[in-house]
From TrEMBL, chain B:
The gene is oppB. It comes from the Bacteria. It is found in: Cell membrane. Residues 94-297 form the ABC transmembrane type-1 domain. Keywords: Cell membrane, Membrane, Transmembrane, Transmembrane helix, Transport. The lineage of its organism: Bacteria, Pseudomonadati, Pseudomonadota, Gammaproteobacteria, Nevskiales. NCBIfam families: PRK09471.1 (NF007008). It comes from Stagnimonas aquatica. GO terms for biological process: transmembrane transport. This is Oligopeptide ABC transporter permease OppB. PANTHER family: DIPEPTIDE TRANSPORT SYSTEM PERMEASE PROTEIN DPPB-RELATED (PTHR43163:SF6). Belongs to the binding-protein-dependent transport system permease family. OppBC subfamily.
């Protein structure tokens, strides 16, 4: 299924552009800080409020009010945001796939009960519970992505359940059962590998959502804490100083928007391709 | 129909109860309390304060006391704002939050709807691609990025509008916040409506309507739009939730005195009752909106009433 996506995707020039841009951004985020002589929290006392581009001092994106380099900080913030995005997506993937596959595979009353619970959870303003969680239980890094992942698995569970319902009627699953394989062996060996394409698409669309949530929390001052930083935290800092140093807002905000844009565009194209592939 | 409505309402109540229960115990299990100030209070005074607010009772009893208060419409006293009831605080902030949210919702429906319909008329055209690229950008840029950028552009650089703050009756104060809050929803609704319009416009009965010689505007705006609105209708529930969470930051960015600021500040100060009150109001709004959407859905699509 996954290899079937490529020919469908290849014709979509917008999606290819998004993928290329995303790779560039990734490369920049990973390698960019090596190009700069500054560290995330190093303070250049000769150059606070430096307006970009400052070629002589090698502050390409300028500095903030403390003389910290905006280029390095924006990329470091991106590294943290992407890391949280991927880790939280992994959490949501784990819960969602297990939940959806079990509900779909066993079906019947269990399925009804499990999906009813998902319906009820859908109606809860979950983000508020996460905010409470973050405020009340300190702001530990792992809590950020576990909490975000724990609220983002509902879509995954629904989609995986639907897919599993269809898969379990297929001949190869019936054959596996006839040959005496147990339920969990079938789930693991027959159902799960065939879910991968769908899961990959949903995960691609989950990552930008999760990054949004993380930066929302960081913007409120509840997510990643100093001295660590993320795009949300940088946008928050930048917004406070935007009258004096608009670049401290524009660079992280721009990188955040560009990344989300590419991820959304790519996810859209993938789900389109998957849909067309299924027809 | 009334049975359908009643059933929907009955499933809404447990949701609210679940929300209140979760929030109540989550807060109480957290370390810290409302009287951990900078200076610690003498033990006798703290004990009498705790007794005054019934914090010395066992947790289940406090929980039941709170629920009992809710039944009488009492949200309890605020810990942080001495001498105020939570009901009074929320009543003071709610008009601001409600105007912000409802205006943003109206703007999102109008602009998002118009954009979606226009884009669907010539799929693949330059206009369609342009609008959809903008919409893609719109869903990628959150309110708390749009907000500061709007302030930077209109208040700092152009000096057309105030950067923030609020005076009762000065509606220009709401212009930028409403726009910042609505933009992501405008984009989401435009994308959704374009997709469902394209689907509907392919249907045979649209061809029939055109073959009968009806004017194109009538075919699009009456025959096609009505069924195409159903997915938008079901999106209104999530949209409400999105607007509410967005309003927490938008109120902060623009310094509006709504109820959003009570939430984060209240949780930091362990103002249990205030936070619960705000969660309850937000939850009730989301549940109410979902309920209205369900009702409207039942009205528009009779097949669902039996479900």
């Amino acid at each position: 299924m996954a290899e079937g996506l490529w020919p469908l995707l290849r014709r979509d020039r917008g999606a290819l552009l998004a993928a290329a841009l995303l790779s560039l951004l990734l490369l920049l985020i990973l390698l960019g800080p090596l190009l700069s002589p500054y560290a995330v929290d190093s303070i250049d006392f000769d150059a606070d409020w430096a307006q970009p581009p400052q070629w002589a001092g090698r502050h390409w994106f300028g500095t903030d009010g403390l003389g910290r380099d905006v280029f390095v900080r924006s990329l470091e913030g991106g590294r943290v945001s992407l890391l949280v995005g991927i880790a939280a997506t992994a959490v949501s993937l784990l819960i969602g796939v297990a939940y959806g596959a079990i509900a779909g595979y066993f079906g019947g009353r269990l399925d009804e009960l499990m999906m009813r619970a998902v319906d009820i959870l859908y109606a809860l303003p979950f983000l508020f519970l996460v905010i409470l969680l973050m405020v009340l239980f300190g702001r530990e890094f792992w809590l950020v992505f576990v909490a975000i992942g724990a609220i983002n698995w509902l879509d995954m569970a629904r989609i995986v359940r639907g897919e599993t319902l269809a898969l379990k009627q297929r001949e190869f699953v019936l054959a596996a059962r006839a040959s005496g394989l147990g339920d969990f062996a079938i789930l693991w060996g027959q159902i799960l590998p065939n879910l991968l394409g769908t899961v990959a698409v949903v995960a691609t669309l989950t990552v930008p959502q999760v990054i949004l949530t993380e930066s929302f929390l960081s913007f409120l001052g509840l997510g990643v804490q100093e001295p660590a930083t993320s795009w949300g935290a940088l946008v928050n800092d930048g917004a406070r100083e935007m009258e004096r140093t608009p670049w401290t807002l524009l660079f992280p905000a721009g990188l955040l928007a560009l990344t989300l844009l590419c991820l959304n565009r790519l996810g859209d194209a993938l789900s389109d391709a998957l849909e067309r592939g299924a027809d | 129909m009334s049975r359908y409505a009643l059933l929907r309402l009955l499933t809404a109540l447990p949701t609210l109860l679940l929300l209140v229960t979760l929030s109540f115990f989550l807060m109480r299990l957290a370390p810290g309390g409302p009287f951990d100030g900078e200076r610690s209070l003498p033990p006798e005074i703290e004990a009498s304060l705790r007794a005054e607010y019934h914090l010395d009772e066992p947790l289940p009893q406090q929980y039941l006391r709170y629920l009992g208060g809710l039944l009488r419409g009492d949200l309890g006293p605020s810990f942080q704002y001495q001498g105020f009831r939570v009901r009074e605080l929320i009543a003071a902030g709610l008009p601001v939050s409600l105007s912000l949210g409802l205006l943003a919702m109206a703007l999102a429906l109008l602009l998002g709807g118009a954009t979606g319909v226009v884009a669907s008329l010539r799929p693949g055209s330059v206009l369609d691609r342009g609008l959809m690229s903008l919409a893609m950008l719109g869903i990628s840029v959150p309110s708390y990025v749009v907000g500061p950028l709007l302030v930077l552009l209109f208040a700092v650089l152009l000096r057309w509008l105030p950067a923030g703050g609020w005076e009762p009756g000065r509606w220009s104060d709401l212009l930028l916040p409403v726009l910042a809050l609505a933009l992501p929803q405008i984009a989401a609704i435009a994308r959704l409506l374009r997709g469902s319009m394209l689907e509907v416009l392919r249907q045979p009965y649209i061809r029939t309507a055109r073959a009968k010689g009806l004017p194109e505007s009538r075919v699009v705006l009456v025959h096609a739009l009505k069924p195409a609105l159903l997915p938008v209708l079901s999106y209104l529930g999530p949209a409400t939730a999105g607007l509410i969470t967005g309003s927490v930051v938008v109120e902060q960015v623009f310094g509006l005195p709504g109820i959003g600021r009570y939430f984060v500040q209240g949780a930091l100060n362990r103002d249990y009752t205030l936070v619960l009150g705000v969660v309850l109001v937000y939850g009730a709004m989301i549940v109410l909106f979902n309920f209205l959407v369900d009702l409207l859905y039942g009205l528009l699509d009779p097949r669902l009433r039996r479900a």
